[in-house]
Every structure is written in structure tokens, then in C-alpha cells.
Amino acid sequence: MMIFSPVTVGQVSFLLGVIPLVAAWIYSEFLEYKKNSLSSKLYSEVNLVEVEKEAVKEDDRAVLLEGGGLQSASPKARTSSAWSPIFRFILMDETFLLENRLTLRAISEFSVLLAYFYLCDRTDFFNTSTKSYNRDLFIFLYFLLIIVSAMASFTIHNEKSPLTGKSILYLNRHQTEEWKGWMQVLFLLYHYFAATEIYNAIRVFIAAYVWMTGFGNFSYYYVRKDFSLARFAQMMWRLNFLVLFCCVVLNNSYVLYYICPMHTLFTLMVYGALVFELLWSPLTFLLGYTDPAKPGLPLLHEWHFRSGLDRYIWIIGMIYAYYHPTVERWMEKLEEAEWKRKMSIKTAVTLITSNGGISVV
């Protein structure tokens, strides 16, 4: 097997960090298997256990009568609670490993996936092939997915508004998640088949993702008033943790996964208007990228280009979020209107939005 690029310090560090975690997971699975196998044996000895319990009760009663105190049956259990998680992991505490078995399994699965990425992208373990675009196959697969997914997509979810307590008729969490899912499918198909003829639609979808960043974050902070560090750190971790590990394992530049730094930027800008250069120039080491085909370009050229394409759409998302309760009231009044008027308004809105979407794409 041939490795296309030199091994980096980050890749070695990742490997050294993952090996003990995977070993701990395998050991925890062995402990779980051992515990389950012993349970059947213990089940067959119920009568003996009951007799032993009675004997223990008599001994405890005698100790109390003598003025003594009951002692713990397991000194290890008494002291293990004082260990920190790191020390308990280093010492391979069996109770700790069993309690965190599923977490260790998730870490191991994630590590296997990253190793698979490395095999596919940085070695000749798998043969390479060129992308081939076939419009008929592309459309067939997409419509097949629509037919299958339609069985679960038309479910009505009664999500309540935290402001009014009424059901959110449009742009609720389920609708936006469904919207993201359909766009993500097209992203994958677009890159897999190199379907350049739908590039304009993909640009609209990326702008829609950034729009949701402004809409979702503004809605949350405007309603919940939760500006805590924990919430901010959680959001930053969710946006960047996969990209961070991909950059380490594959030795890629952060800006190649440009959608994540874009979401990070516009999430930060929801907190307030920030000067672009003042915010990002100190981070040239992170966002800088030298294009091998154009080495004369500035280091931040790629980042300026990618983030500049959608630099205003997050503001529109915030504006939509601000007027969302007003539109909700309009929707409620529309639903209460007579049937003929309601259908005419809905038809007009559908035609206008459809024509606008077709003209843009």
C-alpha cells in the first residue's frame, strides 16, 4: 500500500490517542459479555444467595448489638468514587469502563470512519476512478428518493411556539430540518456525479443554509435569551468537530470545508456587527490557503471569496426571524378566512414563489 503524502505529527498524535480508547472499548465489551454470562449462572443459584443474605443479616444484627458499625463490603467501591474520570480511565476501572461503554463504542466507530477516510483519500488501497455524469440516472435516483421519502415526509408535527403557546404553522424545527435534509442529498449527488449543470441551484441551497444560520440563531437568542458560554461552546463544537478531525487525519486545510467556517463566521456575527479583517486577520494561520495552481494569490483570497458570496443572506435570515411572529398571525387569519379567498391567496403565493425559484435557478 502506497501513502500519497508524508505522515504528519497530527496524524501520529491522533493514532496514539485513539489506540488506548479503542483498547478500552474492547475491554469494556469483554466486561459486559462477562457480566451477562455470569448473570445466567447467578440466576440458577437464587436459593443459595437467599440463604447467604439471611446469614449476612444475622451478622449485621450481631455487629449492631455489639456497638460496632457496618463496614462496606467493597473498599474498592468506597474509594473509586473519589477518582477523577481520567485516573479511573488510566487505571482501567471496570465500573467506569462499563458505565461509559457506549461512549467508548461511539469514539471507536468514529475513529474507524476517519481511518476509512484516510485509506480512501491518502492511499492507493482503493482504485481511483473518474466522475461520470448521466442526467437520466441523476434524475431517476432523485425522484426515486422523493417517492420513498414521501412516505415519512408528510407527517404533521404540532410544535408549540414558546411566545404564544400556539402551533408554529411554518418554518418550525421539523420543516427546517426536512429542508436541510433535502438540500444535503442534492449536495452529495452534485459532488458525487459532478453535476455542474445544477451549480446555480447548489449556490441557492448554500445560501439557504447560511440563511438558516441567521434565522435559527436569531430565533433562539431572541426568544431564549441564553447567551451563556456553554451554549456558545456547544454551537462551536457542533459546527466544527467533524471538520477538525478531518483536517488532522487527512492533513487538509480548514477552508476546504468552507461551509463550516462560513457557519462559524455568521453565527458569531449574529451576536453583533464585527469588522471582517479585525476578526479574521489574526487567524490567517487557520484560514490561509495557498492554491497550488495560483500561488501568487493572497493567503486569505479563498476565504474572502467563499465567505463573500453569502455575506448578506444571514441578515435576511435574522429579519425573517424578527417578523416571523407577525407572519404567523397572518397565517392564522388566512386559515380562518373563507375557503375561496384562502385558496386564491395560497395559489397566488405558490405561483409567485415558483416563478421566482425557476427564474433564479
Could you walk me through the main structural features you see in this protein, from its secondary elements to its overall organization?
By secondary structure, the chain is mainly alpha-helical. It has two domains: 9-120, no CATH class; 127-360, no CATH class. Helices cover 72% and strands 0% of the residues. It contains 16 helices and no strands. It has helices at residues 9-43, 46-65, 75-80, 85-90, 94-99, 101-122, 135-153, 173-193, 199-224, 229-250, 259-270, 276-280, 284-287, 301-309, 313-336, 339-360. α1 (9-43) runs antiparallel to α6 (101-122) and α9 (199-224) packs across α15. The protein starts with 8 loop residues before the first helix and ends with a helix. 11% of the residues are buried. The model is unreliable at 61-80 (pLDDT under 50).
Largest sheet: none
Described by the principal axes of the CA atoms, the overall outline is: globular
Order of helices and strands: HHHHHHHHHHHHHHHH
Strand content: under 5%
Bin the helical content.
Answer: over 70%
Measured on Cα atoms, how large is the radius of gyration?
29 Å
Number of domains: 2
Number of strands: 0
- How far apart, in Å, are the first and last alpha carbons? 44 Å
Mean pLDDT: 80
**SS summary, helix count:** 16
Stretches where pLDDT falls below 50 for ≥5 residues? 61-80
Secondary structure category? mainly alpha
